[in-house]
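Minimal example, chain plus iron/sulfur cluster.
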Amino acid sequence: MNSAVLSPLLSLVDIAHQFSIGGGVFKKAQALQAVRGISLDIRQGEVLAIVGESGCGKTTLAKILMHVIAPSSGEVLFQGQPLSSLSPAARAAHLQAIFQDPYSSLNPRKTVGEIIGLPLHVHQRMRPSERRAPVLELMERVGLPARFYGRYPNQLSGGQRQRVAIARALILKPTIVICDEPTSALDVSVQAQILNLLQDLQRDLGLTYVLISHNLAVVEHLATRVAVMYLGQIVELADTETLFREPKHPYTNALLQSVMTPDLGAGIPDVGLGLNYPNALEPPSGCAFHPRCPNATSRCATEAPPSVFTVGRQVACHFPSNARMAK
Ligand code: SF4
């Protein structure tokens, strides 16, 4: 798919968000800058992956996209209109989410049919008697037999529960689905089945996905474009093939080296980076990656690199072409 010709569906405009940590009678609260300076277009029909280590800000960004939290500054636009100006029903019609853990995201007291049909009830789309047919149609589409309609989540396997969660996310026919680590809680044997299902649904229904993941094998399988985050900022953004073939940022390069480790579920290991992930309450000066970067110079410690746009790529590094020198 040539993502260069796709039009923006969702736009993040200079998004920043900070949390207040601690604080009390004798102690001042500290500001944790979870995301900063993020501007990004999400194009119709693409699968945009947001990757990075735990604490990089990708989950906060996903919550901003889902309108679960409002950014401290900046704006999210849906087709040019502020997302915050849409009614909850309109937002739900355009934006849905699939979460990591199908065990906790499904109500154990509701049947499969009730869970999948609930958004139709909440948003008053149909009379109760009319809901069964579209629910059964969607169940068939996601690979759930009709006999599961009256079953409860505890009677299903992990993969079947995630299929229920996918059907629930699609029942309102959204245009964008936020997929937050959609396979990381599943057995390895069913991960590929769920990934293939997500891929088929995206293609057949013309969906746009935002994929939040630390698993680069999943990202390479599903994504058409990848944004790499480090300490709340996007450090590299490129088409998947370009990024995996020729990473320009030293951090992206280190992440790609980590794909070779056998335990993908354990998170991204520090391949050749030496130091641990920095404390977000005390971000390093200059380029935030400089304490761990094998290519850092004295300039990197004092001067933050701007995000530079070239054909098909955006990278924030003073010496982007040096990425491969790190290994
Ligand atoms: Fe490394 Fe310097 Fe580039 Fe930052 S700006 S990634 S420290 S080379």
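The two ends are 31 Å apart (CA to CA). The chain is about 30% helix and 25% strand.
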